[in-house]
Amino acid sequence: MPHSTPPNGSSDQMDEDSILPDAPPAGLEASDSSDADKLDGSYVVVQDPKKENVKLEDLFDDDEDEEFTSSGASNDNPSSSPPAGPLQIAPAAKYSDPEVMLAFYQRLFPFRYLFQWLNHSMKPSNDFGHREFAFTLQNDAYLRYQSFPSSDLLRKDILRLNPSRFEIGPQYTTNPRDRKTLRKSTAFRPLAKELVFDIDLTDYDEIRTCCDKANICRKCWSFITMAIEVVERALRDDFGFEHIMWVYSGRRGAHAWISDARARTMDDQKRKAIAGYLEVIKGGAQSGKKVNVRRPLHPHLARSLDILKEHFQHDVLEDQDPWAKPEKTERLLQLLPDKALNDALRRKWEAAPGRSSASKWADIDTLAKAGASKNLDGKALLEAKQDIVLEYTYPRLDVEVSKKQIHLLKSPFVVHPGTGRVCVPIDTKRVERFDPLGVPTVTQLLGEIDTWDAEKRKAEPEEDSKKLQDYEKTSLKPYVDYFRTHVGALLKAEKGVKREREDDDPMEF
Predict the structure, then answer these.
(1) In angstroms, rounded to a whole number, what is the distance separating the alpha carbons of residues 142 and 130?
(2) In CA terms, which of 235, 263, 336, 341 is 20 to 30 Å from 127?
(3) CA-based diameter of the chain, in Å?
(4) Given 15, 65, 198, 315, which residue is catalytic?
(5) Do 70 and 469 touch, CB atoms closer than 8 A?
(6) Rounded to the nearest 5 degrees, what angle is found at the Cα of 308, between the Cα atoms of 304 and 313?
(7) Nearest Cα to 104, choosing from 473, 471, 482?
(8) Active-site residue (options: 15, 65, 132, 206)
(9) Is 132 known to be catalytic?
(10) What's the burial of 194, exposed, middle or buried (CB within 10 Å: 0-12/13-18/19+)?
């Protein structure tokens, strides 16, 4: 990293929202052969033996369905499973109920736009057909190396399997389902995948005071807002990426997907280099100084400080009050470079135990100017304060997610199994207005469809107006519209990329 010096420690922690590609789901060790069977190289783990097992011959079906079934759709093939018509959900149903998830996939999930986003074209290609999908089923089974030639077939199998969630992996050199038919295992390798980043609020537990663990509120969500602003700016200004989409993880974090062609085809070494460029906070909760950067500051860090300084004053000092407790105050003093100044500050704060963090931060300059230390190095103090601002505001990335093409990441628009909230895109032009607690839940959305239909029938009982797609009747609409716009810009750019390739490498006869 061009702006970092070696840290005092490091910590690698994986988020519950991501699954390493070559490991069974959490809670099962690879050696636990009694609890796991391999089906075509894909782990199928049943954690509860009382749950019904899924028969492999019933998992897949090649029939096609229309996307976004409208409320008035009928079932033309009553023998197929699941039904094509919309399911009627009981008012007391919970978001974790299988019938709720099935209704969500059937009526609300944007399969067509997901296909276009991953395929980079309207016409089916290997960009999508050789892409890996991994499903977590309702009986806790985990299926890897699934692939589909079209959005219709992906939708059909998801309706049949009804997974609680699914993840997206890379595009491979061949169809992932056919990998065992290859004579050489090395012939099956990843070709392309979006560059991704993962930010999780649990990595901020040592500095956020309002919540911890899986809990979040609007105050601590500001850390995610800061991270998006800093990383987004770096990706666009320093690396020239254009097609960046941030997605709410459904509970306490956000994922970035960079779909530019040159980002997708980067090898692991380049991905690691970009992750290292953006990584500044290093070390676990018990480590010492977490920010070790060279001076003069790299332009990326200087720009980041300009972005973060207002957040530090309001979102950190005022909302979090991080140094209210004595042990937290000692942590602040450890980060300052002058012992005499530290002693003066300690005496002042011990005499006023209720002093706010904002006041304590101001006291540093006040006592320094008052001559609390005769040998104070003003430059060292300024640099120490800059490092403190970075430690309390700079993005805390799970860089392991970004380093490898083969890493799977949860798909946009799936439902988080713990909250019921949909993993919706975040509009970065209005990032400070995004409210994670206001993101709709799956049961809320299905209820909105029923309410809209009832009001429509009551207002216009005889009118045969143009039918809306079900997502257009709900609060999911602005998120799907944003996704559609993002995909449209990507498709337009991909046409230009393909045209340039044809011009640069004309066919010769």
Answers:
(1) 19
(2) 235
(3) 88
(4) 198
(5) yes
(6) 155
(7) 471
(8) 132
(9) yes
(10) buried
**Residue type, position 466, single letter:** K
Best CA proximity match to 214, nearest among 225, 228, 200, 227: 200
- Residue 37 catalytic? no
CB 165 within 8 A of CB 417: yes
Contact 133, 166 (CB under 8 A): yes
Q: Which amino acid is at 363?
A: D
Tally the residues of the chain: 509
Which token pair is 8? 């005092």
Asked whether the CA dihedral 93, 94, 99, 104 is positive or negative, the reply is positive
Residue 158's alpha-carbon distances to 60, 64, 134, 166, 320, in angstroms, are 9, 12, 11, 9, 42
Task: Provide the token pair at 249.
Answer: 């993880």
Which DSSP state fits 56? Answer: G
- Active-site residue flag, 198: yes
User: Full-prediction pTM beyond 0.85?
Assistant: no
Residue whose token pair is 């030639």: 149
Query: Which residues contact residue 156 at a Cβ distance below 8 angstroms, ignoring those fewer than 6 apart?
Result: 61, 62, 63, 64, 65
User: Do residues 494 and 263 make contact, with C-beta atoms less than 8 angstroms apart?
Assistant: no
Q: Which residues contact 324 (CB under 8 A, 6 or more apart)?
A: 209, 356, 357
Q: What is the mean pLDDT of each run of 10 residues along the chain (509 residues)?
A: 48 38 36 34 43 39 39 37 52 77 97 98 97 95 97 98 97 96 91 98 96 96 98 98 98 98 98 98 80 96 97 98 96 96 97 96 97 95 98 97 97 96 98 98 97 89 72 98 98 78 41
Q: Which residue has the tokens 């840290």?
A: 7
Tell the residue number behind the tokens 């999780």, with chain if given: 200
Q: What is the DSSP string of 258-269?
A: E--HHHHT--HH
Range list of β-strands (E), 29-80: 36-39, 42-45
Catalytic residue among 65, 167, 194, 200: 200
